[in-house]
From TrEMBL:
This is Ribulose-phosphate 3-epimerase. Belongs to the ribulose-phosphate 3-epimerase family. Its cofactor is Co(2+); Mn(2+); Fe(2+); Zn(2+). InterPro entries: Aldolase_TIM, Ribul_P_3_epim, Ribul_P_3_epim-like, RibuloseP-bd_barrel. It comes from Emergencia timonensis. It catalyses: D-ribulose 5-phosphate = D-xylulose 5-phosphate.
Length: 222
């Protein structure tokens, strides 16, 4: 089943709790939490305190995307009863296998993200260890960027690998996802779709979530 994970990076932070509850009621499957440290990516977003402030709200589970250096030092800060996934970057982890094992030892699912310039082959020896692969379809750091088409080939490669090898990871995409391209991405084999400005920039956010869900339900990809 295809799932939607709106990114709160594009939300109105003066109404964050309200907007996160809104997308959850509308059918968002996850709340995508983009954490940036100003070192691994050229931007600073927010930390665990902002995320945890939403715990009292009636929201969908967290999909935490750590775009930070030394993620192992901060994992505990982002683990709550609402945390479904913690995703780290292949490019930021010196000992990626150890980091994935560390995440799983804390009782949450682990994921690995790869930047546009990183090939799928860089993940060859951890595919059996991870629950999720996140394909970046923009260069990380800022919302509202244009979709990079080569991400589609990466999704196809990952989908083929999991079918051939019997892996059970899900494939997620982040960056430039819109109502216009979501079907192409889904048909390539993607399972979870991160959308930021395309959701929170809409005049009617709840309606936009529903429109995404309708497009996803109409996709031919398994």
């Amino acid at each position: 089943m295809k799932k939607l994970a709106p990114s709160i990076l594009s939300a109105d932070f003066s109404r964050l709790g309200e907007q996160v509850e809104l997308i959850s009621r509308a059918g968002a499957d996850y709340v995508h939490v983009d954490v940036m440290d100003g070192h691994f990516v050229p931007n600073i977003s927010f930390g665990a305190a902002v995320m945890k402030s939403l715990n009292k709200c009636h929201i969908s589970p967290y999909d935490v995307h750590l775009m930070i250096e030394r993620p192992d030092d901060y994992l505990d800060n982002f683990i709550t009863e609402k945390t479904a996934y913690i995703v780290v970057h292949q490019e930021a982890c010196v000992h990626l296998h150890r980091t994935l094992q560390n995440i799983k030892s804390k009782g949450v699912k682990c994921g690995v993200a790869i930047n546009p310039a990183t090939p799928v082959s860089a993940l060859e020896w951890v595919l059996a260890e991870t629950d999720l692969i996140l394909v970046m379809s923009v260069n990380p750091g800022f919302g509202g960027q244009k979709f990079i088409p080569s991400a589609l080939e990466k999704i196809r490669q990952l989908d083929q690998l999991r079918k051939q090898k019997g892996y059970d990871f899900v494939i997620e995409i982040d960056g430039g996802i819109t109502l216009d391209n979501i079907r192409d991405v889904a048909d390539a084999g993607c399972d979870i779709f991160v959308a930021g400005s395309a959701v929170f920039g809409a005049e009617d956010i709840e309606k936009r979530v529903q429109e995404f869900k309708e497009r996803m339900d109409g996709c031919t990809g398994e």
